[in-house]
């Protein structure tokens, strides 16, 4: 691990422990590259549970490029952690999610040509279409989250729609951190902080995710409004070098350090 400077007291120290959701999509990506059953994403989910994860996230895409239908059922039945079912707002996915009945559904945008989710839902512009999905999932007792960019209009639209949770897309913050331009990093961080603060003021539970890694996670985890971080691609990639169990344990430690009052 990279050595870090001593950390300073953070206001999040008095807030509840931030949950870590581990996204196991790209274990399935590796399995599907060759076909067959290995590596098994359910085995990865069980390993994540033993390493300190608080939940499992999996995205069932329309093209089934990684997670498959049977994976979702197995994750619900065989893993003792809450399942966060990421999906596009389509009737096909709604029917599957209602049958699987996960702990939570996170509605995300989806394009066939994208390599990964490129941005948040346009809740403000698609409010009428999304309302039916939020209502039907909520009526089934499934907690609904909306994956949005950290923008005031999107946060307010999500609150007006009645979804109890928003997940803030941290992809632009990740890209800024890669560019290592302090002013740009601060600007993207400020957007996340402002959106999280507004969401909390509006009564929403705030989650965050996309592009978070060992080197950029602590400032986000240190925000007292953030209750859950969902992280996948980096952890699966890092597991090649240090093992999945150790990668998750290190991420858990970094999040807990940030939450207990220490920030880089």
UniProtKB/TrEMBL annotation:
Subunit structure, interactors included: Homooctamer; tetramer of dimers.
Q: Catalytic residues per the record?
A: 59 (proton acceptor), 86 (proton acceptor), 210 (proton donor)
- Is Cytoplasm among this UniProt entry's keywords? yes
Pathway membership, UniProt? Cofactor biosynthesis; pyridoxine 5'-phosphate biosynthesis; pyridoxine 5'-phosphate from D-erythrose 4-phosphate: step 5/5
Its transmembrane ranges are none
Q: Which organism is it from?
A: Aquisalinus flavus
Q: What is this protein called?
A: Pyridoxine 5'-phosphate synthase
Q: Where is this protein localized, as stated in its record?
A: Cytoplasm
**Keyword set includes Transit peptide:** no
Q: Which family does it belong to?
A: Belongs to the PNP synthase family.
Q: Which UniProt keywords apply?
A: Cytoplasm, Pyridoxine biosynthesis, Transferase
Regions annotated as coiled coil: none
One cellular component term (GO) for this entry is:
cytosol
Enzyme nomenclature, EC number: 2.6.99.2
Q: Which residues bind 1-deoxy-D-xylulose 5-phosphate?
A: 25-26, 61, 66, 116
GO terms, molecular function: pyridoxine 5'-phosphate synthase activity
């Amino acid at each position: 691990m990279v050595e870090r400077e001593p950390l300073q007291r953070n206001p999040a120290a008095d807030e509840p422990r931030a949950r870590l959701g581990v996204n196991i999509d790209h274990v399935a990506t590796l399995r599907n590259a060759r076909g067959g059953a290995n590596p098994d994403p359910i085995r990865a989910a069980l390993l994540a549970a033993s390493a300190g994860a608080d939940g499992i996230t999996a995205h069932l895409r329309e093209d089934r490029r990684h997670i498959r239908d049977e994976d979702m059922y197995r994750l619900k039945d065989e893993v003792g952690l809450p399942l966060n079912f990421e999906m596009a707002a389509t009737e096909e996915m709604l029917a599957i999610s209602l049958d699987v009945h996960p702990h939570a559904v996170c509605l995300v945008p989806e394009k066939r040509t994208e390599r990964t989710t490129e941005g948040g839902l346009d809740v403000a512009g698609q409010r009428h279409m999304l309302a039916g999905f939020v209502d039907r999932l909520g009526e089934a007792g499934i907690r609904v989250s909306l994956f949005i960019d950290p923008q005031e209009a999107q946060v307010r639209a999500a609150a007006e729609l009645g979804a109890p949770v928003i997940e803030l897309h941290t992809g632009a913050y990740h890209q800024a951190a890669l560019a290592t331009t302090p002013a740009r990093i601060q600007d993207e961080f400020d957007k996340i902080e402002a959106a999280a603060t507004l969401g909390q003021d509006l009564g929403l539970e705030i989650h965050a995710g996309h592009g978070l890694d060992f080197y950029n996670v602590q400032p986000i985890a240190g925000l007292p409004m953030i209750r859950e971080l969902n992280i996948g691609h980096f952890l699966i990639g890092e597991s090649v070098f240090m093992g999945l169990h150790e990668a998750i344990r290190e991420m858990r430690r970094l999040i807990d350090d940030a939450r207990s009052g220490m920030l880089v």
